[in-house]
């Protein structure tokens, strides 16, 4: 019970927000017949990993981790940008003065230090061999 009380004291805002949004329960009722300490602990342990409370307990910022669908959407957008860039390079190869499409940039993902595929691919190989890494 001491651990639950300290959790409530140290992370009151996060616990309150999560209990209201996930369970519809006001944490001011903790310790009463309506919300005994045992039930409070059981509910805290079952909060989703992306909840404010669990994020705070991990010591992470309040920025929510991306879902697999968000990572997939970012990957699809990056693929489309690369395709557009290559089509622009094709236009340039057939007489255009310059590539009208900017070089694609990776989409930053929360909690990921390197973008997916960093250090791989044709551009990375060209850079390691002393080139500029830009596809011409």
Structure in words:
- By secondary structure, the chain is mainly alpha-helical.
- It folds into two domains: 2-57, no CATH class; 68-128, no CATH class.
- The chain has helices at 2-10, 12-23, 37-45, 52-57, 68-93, 122-128.
- The longest helix has 26 residues, at 68-93.
- The radius of gyration is 24 Å and the shape is rod-shaped.
- The protein starts with a helix and ends in an 8-residue tail after the last helix.
- Residues 95-123 are annotated as: Disordered.
Summarize the structure.
It is built from six helices and no strands.
Keywords:
136 residues; mainly alpha; 2 domains; 6 helices; 51% helix; 0% strand
SSE topology sketch:
Elements: H1 2-10, H2 12-23, H3 37-45, H4 52-57, H5 68-93, H6 122-128
């Amino acid at each position: 019970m001491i651990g639950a009380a300290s959790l409530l004291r140290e992370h009151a805002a996060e616990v309150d927000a999560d209990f209201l949004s996930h369970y519809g329960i006001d944490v001011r009722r903790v310790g009463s017949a309506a919300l005994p300490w045992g039930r409070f602990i059981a509910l805290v342990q079952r909060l989703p990993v992306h909840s404010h409370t669990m994020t705070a307990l991990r010591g992470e910022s309040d920025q929510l981790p991306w879902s697999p669908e968000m990572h997939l959407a970012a990957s699809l957008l990056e693929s489309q940008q690369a395709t557009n860039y290559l089509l622009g390079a094709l236009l340039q190869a057939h007489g255009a003065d310059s590539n009208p499409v900017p070089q694609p940039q990776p989409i930053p993902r929360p909690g990921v230090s390197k973008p997916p595929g960093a250090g791989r691919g044709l551009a990375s190989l060209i850079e390691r061999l002393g080139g500029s890494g830009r596809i011409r």
